[in-house]
Design goal:
The protein is α/β, with parallel strands linked by helices. The protein contains twelve helices and 21 strands. 29% of the residues lie in helices and 25% in strands.
Amino acid sequence: MNDSAFHYVDGALHVEGVPAASLAEQFGTPLYVYSRDALTRAYRAYADACAGRKATVHVAVKANSNLAVLNVFARLGAGFDIVSSGELARVLAAGGKASNTVFSGVGKSAAEMREALEAGVKCFNVESIPELHALNEVAKSLGKKAPVSLRVNPDVDAKTHPYISTGLKSNKFGVAFGDARATYREAHDMANLDVVGIDCHIGSQITEVSPYLDAVDKLLDLVEQIESDGMSIRHVDVGGGLGITYDDETPPDIGDFVRTLLAHFEERGHGQREVYFEPGRSLVGNAGVLLTRVEYLKPGEEKNFAIVDAAMNDLARPAMYEAFHRIVPVIERKASARLYDVVGPVCESGDWLGRDRELAVEQGDLLAILSAGAYGFVMSSNYNTRARAAEIMVDGERARAVREREEVKQLFAGESILPD
Ligand SMILES: *Cc1c(COP(=O)(O)O)cnc(C)c1O
């Protein structure tokens, strides 16, 4: 376990100062548990490495949008990166500022643009020419100028899972590198747009620095061309995507990653340029676990199954990306371990959380699915009419429900039957 917020004391898993078993007793399972200390330390690693430079951290809300999580970051002075007006509403409700929020996403609606402009977001990360026109129109109707950055697709290989790689030509994201210079000229000519920056986001769970250095090189080449065309670019946004350790990955340490990138801007003669970061997973991924209880053990000829009360609707990443999450006992047993597939109760063969895991477990035991803080609860659904899990934040010796467990009657409260 690579984060001391989650550790064993005499064979019992603790989250900071609280035994995980007592959280499961008090709040039930499946249960998402976050550590305020782990969130804080990850954010500080970014912020400290940015100190003394014109560099800003915008937390990618989509990785974990719980209000308490966002509020921890807002109190630390973070900015935010949103991909919908729903996320904007969350940022504002959590104490974040629109003026320190950038709006990303490939399909912003006119209504979303209007809300974000009225709230006063810092920048729109625009991904296409039609979107530039749409934003220009909305800004005109409000008598405003919209601050824009173009998301450029630098065509670098982030060497990650195809579903989470976004910087290749074949992806739906961003303006093609070869079209970017001309697109900047078009944006510059639109009366209600104010061109302020350039951005990219090359993928997620990236465990090497080199794809970022390649992307920065390409963006800075473009910045030099755009500025020679008479426009000025205030900031370069390098996106998010830094990976975490789920299993045996060895991503760069956050501080080293930031310092290496900022040093590269200096080497390229752009040390004064403002740099934005948009981290999601690397801030929240290893700050959360999912607790689940073993309902049944089902030994078989080819496989043993541990059927648990969490499922693909609670944590979609294994089913969706064949993602690996470590699974550990909440109370360690001395008994000898067997190999299990850890699966949920949902009626799909894809409903698994871990395969071929060596575990010493009995019916009724609690397990912790690690590294579940990013793209965990936020991707959960009500498939099989399963109420979504509760979310808990631990802060030292205290634990607090930061989202109540859903109740089944809430799930169909908006539905109705035909009158006759
Ligand atoms: C998803 C996303 C991020 C965050 O990515 P992580 O891999 O979680 O760090 C940042 N920026 C944009 C535009 C995104 O879509």
